[in-house]
Design goal:
It contains 13 helices and twelve strands. It is of the alpha/beta class.
């Protein structure tokens, strides 16, 4: 059932709606997405692409989502002028992300609770691996809230704002959340049981992505935290954090087909997020046609040269600069090619091809 709460909110905050639907704001969003589309198609620029979105995000799970949406759209309207920056792409984003990385765990019936530091945790399920059943979404209060806030956002008619999905993650990430290290052991000792539960998880993830693609306009739909991961229209995303725990063989045989199927929900494929030591999987990812972008931060940044030289020419790199991979090193490795820098910086210049050779960096 669609919520009417946002209709009332528009009547109260008509100025907010007008700002977030203004032609110049929508045009700025379209211009930024157009630059990304050109880069994904192999285009070159004189300055590197820099992405630093203006995002309102929450991991709260309470019923007061209408208040959050109202306050978030008001805050985004207050900052809308910043979106007109022609050097840095600053999309306006509303990201309702209850339970953080444990959102899917909650749908599967895991006991998700909040720690004193504000983070969410969930203990492993008591059930045996191989017995996982799909959740009954029709009777899930949490999923009902997610549907309501999605419909309400669309009803708000704020085309200048991007709507970001919750953390739908990936089959392996969720399986590790639900079972801990036992799912890794099961891949070796009880492979059919592991395959069953991984498939059940992936089927749910695909179902959720299909639902969002049906109800959110493609111009406004992005996956989790697009302030640093925004892609062109029609691209998906999955979280590959736990792939660092797998050998190349286990990933290739158990997980890669699921990741490929998940990204293939989107007509243009999509991105994998990496934050650890995952470079052992580059040969598989190079062959995965649905994988069009790799987003790296923290430990994964150290392997930027491996990703840049090991992946296909049509696979983009989203890089979050950090102490051990500053912007200067990023540019030395890539010279701005196949690159989006996720940071609040002025875009660095790209050298002419005659001044740089990518093969010089191993």
């Amino acid at each position: 059932m669609r919520s009417t709460g946002c209709i009332e909110m528009i009547m109260i905050n008509s100025k907010v709606q007008r700002i977030l639907a203004a032609p110049n704001i929508v045009a700025a969003r379209e211009a930024g997405l157009g630059r990304l589309t050109s880069l994904f198609a192999g285009g070159r620029t004189e300055i590197a692409m820099v992405l630093n979105g203006i995002m309102r995000i929450t991991e709260d799970d309470g019923p007061a989502w209408e208040t959050w949406l109202d306050e978030s759209l008001t805050a985004l309207a207050d900052q809308a002028e910043r979106m007109l920056d022609q050097q840095v792409f600053r999309p306006l984003i509303a990201n309702y992300n209850p339970h953080g990385v444990h959102f899917i765990d909650h749908l599967f019936g895991a006991r998700v609770f909040r720690m004193e530091d504000g983070s969410w945790q969930s203990p492993p399920l008591d059930s045996a691996i191989g017995s996982l059943q799909p959740p009954d979404l029709d009777h899930s209060p949490m999923w009902r809230i997610m549907q309501q806030i999605t419909h309400a956002f669309v009803d708000c008619n704020v085309p200048g704002v991007i709507f970001a999905l919750p953390t739908i993650a990936s089959a392996l990430n969720i399986a590790v959340n639900l079972y801990g290290q036992e799912i890794l052991v099961a891949m070796i000792e009880h492979p059919e049981a592991a395959r069953h539960d991984l498939q059940v998880i992936n089927d749910l993830l695909r179902r959720l992505h299909h639902w969002y693609r049906e109800y959110v306009p493609v111009d406004q739909l992005q996956c989790i935290v697009p302030d640093g991961r925004c892609q062109p229209k029609g691209f998906g995303q999955l979280c590959g954090c736990t792939t660092q725990l797998l050998s190349p063989g286990l990933y290739r045989d158990f997980i890669a087909p699921l990741d490929d199927a998940l990204l293939s929900v989107y007509p243009n494929g999509g991105m994998i997020h990496l934050c650890g030591a995952h470079a052992q999987h580059i040969p598989v990812w190079r062959q995965m046609t649905s994988l069009r972008a790799v987003q790296i931060n923290d430990r994964a940044d150290e392997d930027l040269a491996l990703y840049f030289n090991g992946l296909r020419e049509d696979q983009m790199l989203y890089v979050n600069p950090c102490e051990h991979m500053p912007v200067e090193c990023i540019m030395e490795i890539t010279n701005g090619r196949r690159l989006i820098i996720a940071a609040d910086i002025q875009p660095p210049s790209v050298k002419s091809p005659s001044m740089h050779s990518s093969t010089s960096v191993g």
